[in-house]
């Protein structure tokens, strides 16, 4: 019989140490690829980089791919590739990773935030048009946590206002909208391969596009403003302002080995998410991820919101969420919050803390005075305050048994809150945390 007493109150934890396997799984293929790279002659942009680009482009169905040292670099390349410039406004969701929006500042453009849709957690497509001005040049869509954005509507708006579309697919490897993989809808897209991502190569990213002109422009930014690649007959001439966003051979070798397993990883995530959903959907008080019929989620991050109305929590909702999270973690579930702040509440935007002297907002090319007001994004704030999520427990090699244990742990905590009553439960947690 399972111990009903929560681990946070001294009971036995549901998932003992070592049950949840670490991410990513590394096997002989990874070791061979990385060792072969190490034994090779070129450790910067080498043969594995070239092959990784080819293989990823093929896997995702893109014409061009450029391997980068981060997803953020690939996003910045998207801004440059789309020919955006000083003072151009770019629409971006109010809730995402910081660099979904700071990549806009990197190019002296102006981020314009749009609130999210509570159900999908993605940009609210119905609130985009009201933010479009004569200065708007592009939309960055973020397929958050692996759920594709409603791309038909995005492309319709982009066409109507002549806007470029950049897909931030950093979390969305293999996620599909209407049967097609993300990274194939916008003018160009960015993927990340950092530690937590569905494809992890340590750090790294991939810029993809089908448009030759965008590819050429992005390529210049990627490597010192040069037009030729490291393995081509370089003329060592900076034709434009460039960064150093190139990947290295060791990382690309690891990425190539992991790419071989990516389809399997995504299948495992889908299976595990299904098992978890089956358990959690019976629990009142939880708001589970919503997947529209035309989307295939990759389950990069399984994100749950607490229904504060159900629990009757009117104030200190973050505190309640944090305590619930602590109790679930104490049961042995590796989970956490993904963001503490919505983007417009981050100091970089609030204090206009970018290039100094208020630049790019103060730039004469912009000529407008905008201020970011976090209260204008209540849905993103509500999501931020009430969510928690997980990546590792649902990832390969963890199987459906682990997913089941996660569900059992969460149920155990929520049942205890219901039994004691939320107020008494919070007081009890406070006591043990003292
Ligand atoms: C949605 C999103 N965009 C961009 C990034 C940036 O990727 P990277 O860390 O590879 O620069 C991340 C991850 O950190 C992300 O989750």
Which features does this protein show?
single chain, 434 residues, alpha/beta, Aspartate Aminotransferase, domain 1, Aspartate Aminotransferase, domain 2, 2 domains, seven-stranded mixed sheet, three-stranded antiparallel sheet, 14 helices, 37% helix, globular, binds pyridoxal-5'-phosphate
Task: Explain what this protein looks like in three dimensions.
- The chain is an alpha/beta fold.
- It has 2 domains: 7-24 and 262-339 and 382-433, Aspartate Aminotransferase, domain 1 (Alpha-Beta Complex), CATH 3.90.1150.10; 28-261, Type I PLP-dependent aspartate aminotransferase-like (Major domain) (Aspartate Aminotransferase, domain 2, 3-Layer(aba) Sandwich).
- The chain has 14 helices and 13 strands.
- Strand 2, helix 4 (98-106) and strand 3 (110-114) form a beta-alpha-beta unit.
- Helix 3 (71-81) crosses helix 6 (212-222).
- The radius of gyration is 23 Å and the shape is globular.
- The chain starts with 27 loop residues before the first helix and ends with a helix.
- 50% of the residues are buried.
- Pyridoxal-5'-phosphate binds at residues 70-72, 96-97, 99-100, 142, 168, 170-171, 192, 194, 205.
- Pyridoxal-5'-phosphate binds next to helix 3 and helix 4.
Shape: globular
| Secondary-structure element string | HHEHEHEEHEEEEEHHHEEEHHHHEHH
Helix content: 25-40%
Structure ligands: pyridoxal-5'-phosphate
Q: Beta-strand level of the residues, as a percent range?
A: 5-15%
N-C termini distance: 30 Å
